[in-house]
Description:
Elements: E1 2-5, H1 15-24, E2 30-35, H2 47-56, E3 61-66, H3 70-77, E4 84-88, H4 95-104, E5 108-113, E6 131-135, H5 150-163, E7 168-172, H6 180-186, E8 190-193, H7 195-198, H8 204-211
Parallel strand pairs: 1-8, 2-3, 3-4, 4-5, 5-6, 6-7, 7-8
Helix pairs in contact: 1-2
Amino acid sequence: MLVAPSILSADFGNLARDVNAICDAGCDLVHVDVMDGHFVPNLTIGPVVVSAVAEAATKPLDIHLMVENNTFFVDLFAPLKPAYISFHIEEEKHPHRLAQYIRSLGIKPAIVLNPHTPAESLEYLLPYIDMVLVMSVNPGFGGQKFIDVYEKVRRLRDLRDRLNPDCLIEVDGGVNDANIAALAEAGVDVCVAGSYVFKHADGLKAAIDSLKV
């Protein structure tokens, strides 16, 4: 299991310190949630702050766009050369075209599914992307309760194995040591965890290690 702590739960007054700390503690990716206040009812960070995150990080960035006008935001963040940029299929009229565009920038394209969006919606897109992010909470805020997505992940895994075995499956929302083993069994390759990692009583390394099943 690859672990991608979400900096949404970091101390923004000490952001560089916290980003450096999760990298030193053994994370695999640094998950960056970008919200525009339109697609979701919250507003987070722009390219100036993410640039500071990129400078502090010793692990690749995993940028999750929760925005309208995806292409505009892809162009804002592409110069930072993240490993992945993910966008919501619910907001994109031409997902195949956008995935191709992201790849042309030297970045791995990923598509996000909200809790209500079926795995089957990606059947004709899976060959063209490198990761699917399954939301196990409603997007927009950290610290929410986990929504059961096990069967959805299994169906997605079966599609992935048939159409693009190299595509990763990522889950974001309410992930912790109580559900990580079941998520791994269902087919999850990458987990995003925010408050669980940054607020863990035994520290960042213990939290990250507990998710590496």
